[in-house]
Amino acid sequence: MTLAVIQMASQADILANLANARRLLERAAEADAQLAVLPENFAAMGRTDLRAVGRAEAEGIGPILPWLKRTAIDLRLWIVAGTLPLPADGQPQSKVRACSLLVDDQGQRVARYDKLHLFDAQVSDARGRYQESNDYAAGDRLVVVDTPVGRLGMSVCYDLRFAELYTALRLAGAELISVPSAFTEVTGQAHWEMLLRARAIETQCYMLAAAQGGEHPGGRLTHGHSSIVDYWGRVMREQTTGEAALVVGRDTVGQAETRQRMPVLDHRRFTTPRIVSGTLE
């Protein structure tokens, strides 16, 4: 069971981003990865026309979804497509969501997760205000799905600060969790690694953290440090900045033994929000 995360420094040119992502996914496939995770905004970083991009994809005239299907088939690879702007299913005119799609090696959509927590924050005094809710609507569903490398829980970037979501993913059976991200340089330096390791330790899951790492339109800097963190909180692979395809094997025996020796779910004294038909209450 071989896992991969991809690090990019995406720009506003969608076609160029897709070409770069394809090249990095090819590296992962050549290393026998069965599932690979792309970073947040892998195809449309810094775009100001996100609604138009999302509407085109929803109407079947955009380049991203056909590329995703073709790449998964060509490389025989399951792909977590970081995030792309997409309106809610069946609502092409609605506000876009930061949508993370999972497609299988036949190019079929297996799952969709829309980012639950939107990054509306002031992270520094100089050009440090982010307001994702201006561009995106929040999701409302928890997603855990079976894959050839284990049961995958899905999350995105700012979600990482909300431990209750990750506990809920573990309770729903997650063995590994995807975290496509574009952490700022300020917040990344302060919190990225410790949050990843904490979520891994709490859930006893692999964290597949595919990040943006570099400079983007408008001078935005992202922290990079894409990582694969195991169920014991060990950083198995990491890339500081620039492009990379990181690949590791999943130790299913060690993970199962750790969960048996330290059954944290059985020791819980407090509950997380109830989940009814996949919707958080």
UniProtKB/TrEMBL annotation:
It comes from Stutzerimonas zhaodongensis. The keyword Hydrolase applies. The keyword DNA repair does not apply. PANTHER family: DEAMINATED GLUTATHIONE AMIDASE, NITRILASE-RELATED. Residues 1-252 form the CN hydrolase domain. This is Carbon-nitrogen hydrolase family protein. InterPro entries: C-N_Hydrolase (IPR003010), C-N_Hydrolase_sf (IPR036526), Nit1/2_C-N_Hydrolase (IPR045254). GO terms for molecular function: hydrolase activity, acting on carbon-nitrogen (but not peptide) bonds, in linear amides. Pfam families: CN_hydrolase (PF00795). Keywords: Hydrolase.
